[in-house]
Design a protein that fits this description.
This protein is mainly β. The chain is about 5% helix and about 50% strand. It has one helix and eight strands; from the N terminus they run H-E-E-E-E-E-E-E-E. Strands 1, 2, 3, 4, 5, 6, 7 and 8 form an eight-stranded antiparallel β-sheet that branches. Strand 5 and strand 6 form a beta hairpin.
């Protein structure tokens, strides 16, 4: 419905504020950065992973998450993910994460 879409959008110009990741945590080959967005229902995290596949690290999803690999190769619960591959992680699920790469995680903020 194009007319409804046009009603919902705001066409404005001006400076765009660029979000930068705030360091959230770092441990054992996993660095996590957090992008705080103005939307209360959305948060973006970046995972920088350098974890040996023989010793994967547990990643616990405390909320619904969509993980998208953007660089390198990551293994999640035995599934090898390349750039542009994605996986949904249900809340309360712990997955085994390893590899050498970067992924972005779309999730909801902890409140």
């Amino acid at each position: 419905d194009v007319p409804e879409l046009l009603d919902a959008l705001e066409f404005v110009t001006g400076p765009v504020s660029v979000l930068h990741a705030e360091p959230a945590s770092s441990a054992g080959g996993l660095r996590i950065g957090r992008y705080v967005t103005p939307a209360p229902e959305f948060e973006l995290q970046v995972l920088e992973v350098t974890i040996d596949t023989d010793e994967p690290s547990a990643w616990l999803a405390d909320a619904p998450q969509i993980l998208v690999v953007t660089h390198g190769q990551l293994t999640i619960d035995g599934a090898v993910l390349q750039p542009a591959d994605s996986v949904f992680v249900a809340p309360g699920t712990s997955v085994q994460l390893s590899g050498d790469g970067t992924a972005f995680v779309a999730t909801v903020p902890n409140v």
